[in-house]
Amino acid sequence: MSDPILTVADLRVSYGRVEAVRGVSFEAARGSLVTLVGANGAGKSSVINAVSGMLRPAGGRITFEGADITRTPAHKLVARGLVQVPEGRQILATLTIDENLRMGAWHAGGTAQSTIDAMYDRFPVLAERRALPAGSLSGGEQQMLAIARALVARPTVMLMDEPSMGLAPKIVDEVFRVIEEIRASGTTVVLVEQNARRALRAADHGYVLQSGAVVRSGPAAELLADERIVEAYLGVD
Ligand code: ATP
Q1: In this protein, which residues make up the domain named ABC transporter (predicted)?
Q2: How confident is the model at residue 145 (pLDDT cuts 50, 70, 90)?
Q3: Which amino acid residue places its CA nearest to atom 14 of ligand 1?
Q4: Which helix (H) or strand (E) holds 49?
Q5: Hey, which of 89-93, 152-156, 213-217 has the most confident mean pLDDT?
Q6: pLDDT mean across residues, the chain
Q7: What is the pTM of this model?
Q8: Closest C-alpha to ligand 1, atom 30
Q9: Could you give the angle at the alpha carbon of 46 between the alpha carbons of 14 and 176, nearest 5°?
Q10: Which amino acids bring their CB within 6 angstroms of ligand 1?
Q11: Fewer CB within 10 Å, N- or C-terminus of the chain?
Q12: ipTM for the predicted complex
């Protein structure tokens, strides 16, 4: 690959004696949208949590912007532009929407008010309710808040774990529209999804995970076009 911004080589993640990730390698070209797809339990979340510094890998090497970040903790990576939108959104339900966005800015070492204002322009539903507790938002709105909170850190690489999980189809469309916009603005996106077809339609490159290993990879359109892959690994949706 000509200019990978993120490279993961032979990554291993274990929980006690459970080997959840057994030598996963992938890379993301600068400005691209890469997706890791696979069934429940394939190891997708473990991979992305290791990349974002939320959990410590048992082995392998992760390189971001040419630097080894294999053991760099999450808060340092956020300040360097590698930011994760966690699975299950994990917004702070009792804090207001505005406070949630400020927390995102604070984690990134402070962000200008104009960056937060830009989020309100982009997500009018958040602007209207900025003084309300985040827990009062619907599931889709909470996902938008989680994305906006990551964006105030001005990421160069955004990692997203199952952003469509538990959302109604119309809201899933909206979430994917936002993901594609983020990518169009130049941010590299690494997207973990069980909704494989949907993710591959949006992605440039895809990796199919099964039992903690990459079983197929390639241009997303090629993976989607291969009936055998779709049948064997991607299931119905
Ligand atoms: P999901 O969509 O369910 O999140 P996934 O593909 O993201 O699936 P992981 O969550 O990474 O998969 O899980 C991979 C394997 O590791 C599974 O067998 C899971 O049971 C196991 N696992 C995950 N987290 C833990 C943990 N904290 N302790 C023990 N085992 C775990």
Answers
A1: 6-236
A2: very high
A3: 43
A4: helix 44-51
A5: 213-217
A6: 91
A7: 0.93
A8: 15
A9: 170
A10: 15, 18, 20, 38, 40-46, 194
A11: C
A12: 0.94
Token pair belonging to 37: 């797809």
Three-state SS for 21-79 is: EEEEEEEEECCCEEEEECCCCCCHHHHHHHHCCCCCCCEEEEEECCEECCCCCHHHHHH
C-alpha atoms less than 13 angstroms from C-alpha of 116 in its C-beta half-sphere: 17
The phi-psi region of residue 31 (left if phi > 0; otherwise alpha if psi is between -120 and 50; otherwise beta) is: left
Please report the pLDDT score of residue 13 as a whole number. Answer: 98
Nearest to 93 by CA among 145, 140, 154: 145
- Determine the residue type at 61: R
Torsion of CA 59, 69, 37, 58, to 10 degrees: 20
Position 237, amino acid: D
Question: 125 alpha carbon to ligand 1 midpoint, in Å?
Answer: 33
Picking from 41, 37, 48, the residue whose alpha carbon sits closest to that of residue 11 is 48
Which of 19, 24, 46 maximizes ligand 1 atoms within 8 Å of its Cβ, making it the mutation to test the pocket?
A: 46
Mean pLDDT of 145-150: 93
Q: What is the token pair recorded at 200?
A: 């591959």
Distance, CA 21 to ligand 1 centroid (Å)? 9
Residue 156's pLDDT is: 96
The first and second tokens of residue 137, run together, are 């938002």
In the chain, the amino acid numbered 97 is I
